[in-house]
Design goal:
Length: 153
C-alpha cells in the first residue's frame, strides 16, 4: 500500500531536545519582538517631537528648508519610515513566538506550520531589505567614484 501524497511514511518528529530549543527560541523571539515594538513606538514619539519641539529650535537657529537646511519634517518622515520598516519584522517575530508556543503546548501541527511560515516571512523581509541596502550602497559608491573622478580631472 502506497502512502497518499499528503502523508509521508517517515513523518518528521520533533524530539524533546528540539522542543526545548524551539520553546527557548520562542521566548527570546517574544522578548525581541516586544522590545522592537517599543523601539518602533520610540521612533514615532521622536518623530512627533521633531515636528513640534525641533520646529521652534530650527526657527531660532535660523535654519529652515528654504535656506538650505534640513527641517523637522524630513527628520520626522525618516523616523516614521524607520518605525514602519521595523514594525513588520517584529510582527512576524511576535507571531512566530506565539504560534510556536501554542504548537508546543498543544502538539498542534497547524500552529507549528504557521510559526515556521512567520519565521520564513521574517527572513524573506530582512533578506529583501538587505538586497535593497546593498544595492543602494553600491549605487552610492558608484556615484561617489564618478563624482571623485570628475573633480580630480
Amino acid at each position: 500500500m502506497e502512502p497518499s501524497p499528503q502523508t509521508n511514511l517517515f513523518e518528521l518528529q520533533v524530539e524533546a531536545t528540539a522542543q526545548s530549543y524551539l520553546r527557548d527560541a520562542a521566548r527570546w523571539a517574544r522578548f525581541l519582538s516586544l522590545a522592537g515594538f517599543v523601539f518602533c513606538g520610540l521612533f514615532v514619539v521622536f518623530a512627533i517631537v521633531a515636528l513640534t519641539l525641533l520646529a521652534g529650535l530650527f526657527n531660532t537657529m535660523g535654519t529652515s528648508p528654504a535656506s538650505g537646511g534640513m527641517g523637522p519634517v524630513p527628520i520626522a518622515l525618516v523616523c516614521i519610515g524607520i518605525a514602519a520598516l521595523n514594525f513588520f519584522p517584529n510582527l512576524y517575530l511576535y507571531n512566530f513566538a506565539g504560534r510556536m508556543r501554542l504548537a508546543l503546548q498543544n502538539n498542534d501541527q497547524d500552529h507549528l506550520s504557521t510559526a515556521f511560515r512567520n519565521i520564513r516571512a521574517l527572513l524573506r523581509f530582512v533578506g529583501v531589505l538587505m538586497i535593497i541596502a546593498v544595492g543602494l550602497f553600491l549605487l552610492i559608491f558608484l556615484l561617489l567614484l564618478i563624482t571623485a573622478s570628475r573633480v580630480s580631472s
